[in-house]
Design brief:
about 240 residues; alpha+beta; 2 domains; 15 strands
Length: about 240
């Protein structure tokens, strides 16, 4: 059985520590999803509101509802505020935005001007009005399709970024919002990619760290060998 020398073990341990500390990304936390919403036709402004606590701290971060105005007019809505909001585009009133929807692999990060401001209280995920579909989860062929929403929210006074994967649908008798996946970055003011389920180290960071650790191990081994040779008694 081959034994690993102490110097090599030290070098490999240092490499592992270096690789861990060199990662530029924190853990991605998978959020607990709210239950799906199913609203029958005829349920208007009195439709029930669903609260969502993203990180499990007993604080409601967002709210959702699906309401019908008629069999051919409905809205799938997300309640937001000044600190907990999402990416959107202007709607028909300053207090609302149409939610943007994305595919996987899109960065949700600080500095994006599309995040809703303090005057916005409603994100329209999707709607049907006068025969036209609106919102990122309904227009453009997205009705009934799985799409991602980018959001930011507050934890103990700090801003965190995340995504919600959802699907909005309506078939003339019932309207639904299905919640499929959600996650956020545990480090404040740090972005996340839609669909990401684990932190990904910066390309080359881990390999470079391991290579550096291997070099340290080699240097330690060489010094140990030189010291042994210098102190070994003559034959």
């Amino acid at each position: 059985m081959t034994k690993t020398s102490p110097s090599l073990r030290v070098g490999l341990a240092g490499a592992a520590a270096l690789a861990a500390s060199s990662s530029a990304y924190a853990d991605i936390v998978m959020a607990t999803l709210p239950p799906n919403i199913s609203t029958p036709v005829g349920t208007g402004a009195g439709a029930s509101v669903l609260n969502w606590d993203v990180n499990g701290d007993a604080v409601t971060d967002f709210q959702f509802t699906f309401r019908y105005y008629s069999a051919t007019s409905w809205q799938a809505l997300m309640g937001v505020n000044a600190t907990n909001n999402a990416l959107g585009t202007p709607a028909f009133t300053p207090s609302a935005l149409y939610a943007r929807s994305y595919g996987s692999g899109v960065s949700i990060a600080p500095g994006n001007p599309a995040f809703s401001g303090s005057s916005v209280t409603v994100m329209i995920l999707g709607s049907l009005y006068a025969g036209n579909l609106y919102g990122g989860f309904a227009s453009g062929g997205n009705l009934g399709q799985s799409r991602f929403l980018g959001f930011r929210f507050n934890i103990a006074g700090q801003t965190h970024y995340g995504y919600l994967e959802a699907r909005v649908n309506a078939n003339g008798s019932v309207g639904t919002i299905d919640f499929l996946s959600a996650a956020f970055n545990s480090t404040p003011n740090t972005g996340i990619l839609t669909g990401a389920t684990a932190a990904v180290p910066e390309p080359g960071t881990t390999l470079a760290a391991l290579a550096a650790g291997g070099l340290v191990a080699l240097q330690v081994a060489r010094r140990r060998k030189q010291t042994t040779a210098a102190t070994e008694p003559a034959a």
